[in-house]
Amino acid sequence: MEWIDFATPKTISEAVEMLASKGDRARAMAGGTDVLVQLRGGRRSADLVVDVKGIPELNVLSYSAQDGLTLGAAVPCFRIYQHKAVIDNYPGLIDSASLIGGIQIQGRASIGGNLCNASPSGDSIPAIIALSAVANIAGPKGTRQVPAEDFCTGPGRSVLENGEILVSITIPVPLAHSGANYLRFIPRNEMDIAVAGVGSSVVLDASGQNIVSARIALASVAPTPVFSKAAGDSLAGKAVSDAAIQEASEKAMADAKPIDDMRGTVRQRVHLVGVLTRRTLNNAIQRARGG
Amino acid sequence: MPGVTHVQTTINGEEVNFLCEPRQSLLECLRDVVGMTGTKEGCNDGNCGACTIIFDGRIVDSCLVLGVEAQGKDMTTIEGLATPEGLHPLQQSFLEQAALQCGICTPGFIVAAKALLDAEPDVDEARVRHWLAGNLCRCTGYDKIVRAVLDASQKMK
Predict the structure, then answer these.
(1) Interface pTM, i.e. ipTM
(2) Is B22 an interface residue toward A (CB < 8 Å)?
(3) pLDDT of residue A2
């Protein structure tokens, strides 16, 4: 790794000032599980690494029945999957947090970092898109909010401008009769990058037989995570049925624009999007029914 | 020296001070600066788990931690397991069950397994295999490692 300077700001304004002073020569770091690999491998370079783990707002993990979940950008995965309110209210988020890397990676890696890394294959991104998450950003010009589905702009690129940091992710309170699920396909059992991944969420009516709304997002099938609005919208107002789920999966497949690479082919990935959309929808519906 | 940082940390219960550059990984600091070579370098990018240490209560890949991040922290490395009285039960079980061949992955496996057994004394095979998914071994085929961890879990009760 080339020479870097290292800073440990204790406040958001201090971090923003440090990052802004170095422009694109500065990188924020939380768990470091992507940034350090990229710096060491020469895929990114930086003069200044700003460790944001010492900033209180980035370590918040709190749930309330009014405001939903506030997930500080630096909160590591293990804190998420050990948190009772998250386990109870957001099992779809637990799906992601507990399959990113192995136990060692989960001790450091954060969902916020996964989002900022903006990999098309980031396992948490479809899950938080499905859950209608919003990214809370602070920068030299103040704060702003960006829906999770608009955050990533290309492989490794995001809406974050020089000097801006992701402070937290907020996820609304789960509605009654709602459920979510994330699944990915990998050729191994653990520790691999998704060939394709799908996150789904559904809201059912009180009978549990009809779909009020749904959100579906895809990983590893485009330059960014994909929010397949057409797939989710196709389910709104429909009775739960294999035919409705099949139709949604076909719309998700139509939104998948993958490439052939060492992990999979276009054909395989589009096929996987169909399978995983159906499975995640069925799992989300089961959770929405309390199962 | 400009840019060199003084780090004060606790390794295996003892206060340790070292100087490092911000770009140096904790793994590099442990091995090349402090001289504790029990922790091994495998892939150096977080895939293999050979450099696993317990850092602030959680297992991490020390190649993905910067040395400067160790300031004020508490860590356990493989050197912290045996006592003057003898080997740790995990080390003993690894020997008895022949759970190592070349040995490069072994410290990482043992440290990771220690963290598991300290937190969850009653483990089954599935839990051990899942917990150790971030540790790669190219020699043993894993079976003997899993058996050794389960054997140690019985000894430690």
Answers:
(1) 0.96
(2) yes
(3) 83
Indicate the class that CATH gives domain A56-171.
Answer: alpha beta
pLDDT at A189: 84
Can you give the pTM of this predicted structure? 0.96
Give SS3 for B42: coil
Return residue ranges of chain A for CATH 3.30.465.10: 56-171
Angle at A8 between CA A106 and CA A74, to 5 degrees: 30
**Domain A178-288: homologous superfamily in CATH:** CO dehydrogenase flavoprotein, C-terminal domain (3.30.390.50)
CB contact under 8 A, A33 and B46: yes
pLDDT tens digits for range A177-187: 999 999 999 99
Note which residues in 130-149 of chain B have CB less than 8 A from chain A.
130-131, 133-135
**Structural domains of chain B in order of their starting residue, each with its CATH number:** 5-80 (3.10.20.30), 89-155 (1.10.150.120)
Inter-chain CB proximity A6 and B22 less than 8 Å:
yes
Is the CATH number of domain A5-54 3.30.43.10?
Answer: yes
Residues 6+ apart with CB under 8 A from A47: A4, A5, A22, A25, A26
Find the largest Cα–Cα distance for chain B.
52
Residues of A with Cβ-Cβ distance to B131 under 8 angstroms:
103
Q: Chain A contact for B47, CB < 8 A?
A: yes
Distance (Å) from the alpha carbon of A8 to chain B's nearest alpha carbon: 9
Query: Backbone dihedral region of A268: left (phi > 0), alpha (psi from -120 to 50 degrees) or beta?
Result: alpha
Q: In chain A, which segments carry CATH 3.30.390.50?
A: 178-288
Interface residue B6 vs chain A (CB under 8 A): no
For the segment B123-145, what is each residue's pLDDT rounded down to a tens digit?
A: 999 999 999 999 999 999 999 99
User: What is the band of B2 on the pLDDT scale with cuts at 50, 70, 90?
Assistant: low
- A108–B65 C-beta distance less than 8 A: yes
